Amino acid sequence: MDLSLEISSALRLLGNSTNFGQAEFKKVLQKATDDLINSGKVPVTSTGSGACDGTIARSHAALATLFIEAVKSNQDGTIVTSTLEDFNWPAERISETVKELDSCRERIRSKLASVGTYPPHIVDVDWKLDYHVRSSAGEEGGGAFYLITLHTEESDGRRGKVTFSCSLAQLSHLVTQLRQASRCIQKYANNS
Amino acid sequence: MPLTISEDHKAHLSLLIPQEAPVVGEFCRLAIQFLKQGVNPRVFNSAANKLKVQPNEIEEAIRALVYLLSHCTQATASKDEFNQLLLSLGFSEDAAQVLTETFTQNEPELKMYLKRMGVQVPEYCNLEWRFDILVGSRTLNHIAEPLITMQLSLDSHKSKEDGSLQDQPGKLLLQTDPNNLSHMTAVLEEALHEARTHHSRKIHRHLK
C-alpha cells in the first residue's frame, strides 16, 4: 500500500504500545470507524493523556486514511496486515484493526461511491394526462397532452425535478427509446 | 365576442390612422417582422425620419398594431369584423383593406406568437441514450457499474427578451441505472395505456 511519510509515521506511533495505551488505541480506532461511517463532524478531542501536540488527531487521520485506501483499492485484509506489520504493530492490534475494517468495508464503499460529480440521476417518474380545451391565447382543442415529471438526485444529495409536456405520439417515441435501451442491457446481461 | 379597443390603445394607434395606404402597408410589414424577429431600432429610426416623428412613437405604433392583430386573432374575429373595427377607428378604406389583408395572410404567424405568449411548458423533442459501464473513479477503483446516460432535448418555445423565437432546443444530460430504467419504462407504458382506456376515449370524443 502506498502511504505518505506523514501517514506512515503517524501509524508507527499509533502502533507503539508505549505511546498509545490499549484503551486509547481502542478509542481512536472506534472514533475513526464511526466517523467514516457517519461522516461525523465532531472534532477529535484529546483523551487527556497529556500529549497535547495533536498526536491523537494525526493518528486518527492516519487510521482513517488507511481504511479509505484499503477500500478504494479493494485490498483485502492480508495487504493491510502486512502493511501494519511493517510499522511494527503488535499482532493483537493488527487483528482488531482488520476486523473493524472488514465490518465497515461495505459502508465506507458506498460513502466513497457517492462522493464525486455525476449528472442528475433519475430515480422516479410521475405523469399526468391532460386535455387542452381552451387557452387565454385563443387556442382551442389542443388535444390530449401528457405532463411528465422526472425526479432526479444530484451529486450533493439534492432532489431535482425535470418537467416537460408531450403528445401521445411523442410519448410513444420516448417509450420506444427506453425499451430499446432496456433490451440492449438485457442482451448484455444474458450474454455475460 | 365583440371587438373593443381601449382608449390607450387608440391613442397609440393615432399615429397610423391618418396615414396613406402605402405607409400603412409599410407599417404592417414592420409589425410582422417584429412578430418574427423582435425589436429593430434602426428600422424605427429610418421610419421616424421619414414621418418626422420620434422613434419611440414609431415603436409604440408598431407595438399597438401588433397588439391589435393578435387581440383580434385571439378573439377569432372574422375578416369583416376586423374591417368594421378599423373603419370605426377612423382608418381610410384603402388602409383598412391593407390591414385586413395582413391580418388574414399572417394568421399562422399570429397564432404562433400568441402561443408563445401563453402558458409555456417545455415540450419533449428527443431522447438519446447510451449504455456505459463505470470502471473507476477518483474515490473508488475497480468498479463495474452499469449506467445509462441520456440526453433529453426539450423545446421550451420561450421567447428571448426581445420577443423573437428561441431556435435551439435545450439539452439536458441525465443518467440512470438499469433498475430505474425498467421502472421508468413500466410507469410510462402505464401512462400510454391510460390514453387508450374507455374513459379517456369518451372524454376525447365528448370534447372534440
TrEMBL record, chain A:
Residues 121-189 form the COMM domain. InterPro entries: COMM, COMMD3. CDD domains: Commd3 (cd04751). GO terms for biological process: sodium ion transport. PROSITE patterns: COMM. Belongs to the COMM domain-containing protein 3 family. PANTHER family: COMM DOMAIN-CONTAINING PROTEIN 3 (PTHR31159). This is COMM domain-containing protein 3. It comes from Penaeus vannamei.
